[in-house]
Specification:
- With about 300 residues, this protein is an alpha/beta fold.
- The chain folds into two domains: about 1-215, 3-Layer(aba) Sandwich (Rossmann fold), CATH 3.40.50; about 245-305.
- The chain has helices spanning about 50-55, 90-100, 105-115, 130-145, 160-175, 190-195, 245-255, 260-285, and strands at about 1-10, 20-30, 35-40, 65, 70-75, 150-155, 180-185, 195-200, 205-210, 215, 290-295, 305.
- The strands form three sheets. The chain has a six-stranded mixed sheet, with helices on both faces. The chain has a four-stranded antiparallel sheet with strand order 4-1-2-10, covered by helices on one side.
- About 35% of the residues are buried.
Length: about 300
């Protein structure tokens, strides 16, 4: 249902900034099946939101593959993403309409989800008059009204009291039982206890610390192939003559270039691409293979030699 392979994301400083690059995600792989709820934990700045936004498509990735269903629901957890001059009901109705529902169906479905998060009494209340906890529940209702198959929630239980958290979790469990895959970020221990899967991001690496049998597994490491810009699909086979050359070049690009200033890194990146072209074409002539050129995500050059 959701497969992430070799996901990497680096935030580079601007040319005039005196700071080093930050690897938010470093070769993260994960696979989730239907009906699973995963709680993603980690300290502030560990890359949790970046991970979700890459899956959604709001942030570009540097390396990796993301395979996901088309029907996706996303909540940033930010109250400012709500339409404050509209009522709670109209906020949810609007997203139901975006999903293609007819007006009558959109209104009925919106009322249903408001009831499930305990906001029936506030249906006609403008968002600006709602409390922070009520807005948080409204974000959850708005995210789920389109019946997504993949649900991504950024700290949905933040600012909620115990009763409201129970309402949200009951709704999420219902969606999971219907086959949806759900990932939520959290700092709360009670959320991790209720989740089927618990994963932690630290230092750009993802560690799964809890999972039910068969519920989730780390995707096997890709032994060959170049990553793409977040589009699922086949990768180039480098299992032949180009295999030994690629790891060395990849290490140079990651570990050396990220320590350099951006302009110098750019020049060296281009130079390394030229070196790859020369070496791989020469190698192709020596071993008698054909050469396949395959650009890969976030890099200027990337090539594979195929037989």
């Amino acid at each position: 249902m959701l497969r992430v392979e070799g996901l990497s994301k680096v935030y580079r400083p601007l040319p005039w900034e005196r700071s080093s690059a930050v690897w938010a995600l470093d070769d993260v792989s994960l696979e989730l099946g239907e009906g699973q709820i995963m709680a993603l934990t980690g300290s502030n700045g560990s890359g949790k939101t970046t991970f979700l936004k890459i899956i959604v498509g709001l942030v570009s990735l540097d390396e990796g593959l993301v395979t996901k269903p088309e029907r996706l629901g996303w909540s940033s957890g930010e109250e400012r993403s709500l339409y404050w001059r509209l009522t709670a009901l109209h906020n949810v109705e609007l997203f139901a309409a975006f999903a293609g529902m007819k007006p009558s169906a959109a209104k009925a479905r919106s009322k249903q989800f408001l009831a499930e998060v305990g906001l029936s009494a506030q249906a006609k209340t403008p968002v600006r008059l709602l409390s922070s906890g009520q807005r948080q529940r409204l974000l959850v209702a708005r995210c789920l009204v389109s019946e997504p198959v993949l649900v991504l929630l950024d700290e949905p239980t933040n600012s909620l009291d115990a009763e409201s958290r129970d309402l949200v979790w009951e709704l999420l469990r219902q969606k999971a039982e219907a086959g949806a895959v759900i990932i939520l970020t959290t700092h709360r221990e009670d959320d991790t206890e209720k989740a089927d899967v618990v994963a932690t991001l630290a230092g750009g690496e993802l560690t799964v610390s809890k999972h039910l049998p068969g519920s989730v597994r780390r995707a096997p490491e890709v032994e060959s192939g170049f990553p793409t810009d977040g589009v699922a699909g086949p990768v180039a086979d480098t299992s032949r003559s180009g295999t030994l050359l690629w790891p060395l070049l990849a290490l140079l690009k990651r570990d050396v270039f990220t320590m350099l200033s951006y302009p110098l890194a750019f020049v060296l990146q281009v130079a390394m691409g030229v070196v790859e072209v020369v070496l791989l074409f020469f190698l192709a002539q020596v071993v008698g293979t054909s050469t396949y050129l395959a650009p890969f995500g976030g890099k200027y050059f990337g090539f594979a030699v195929l037989g």
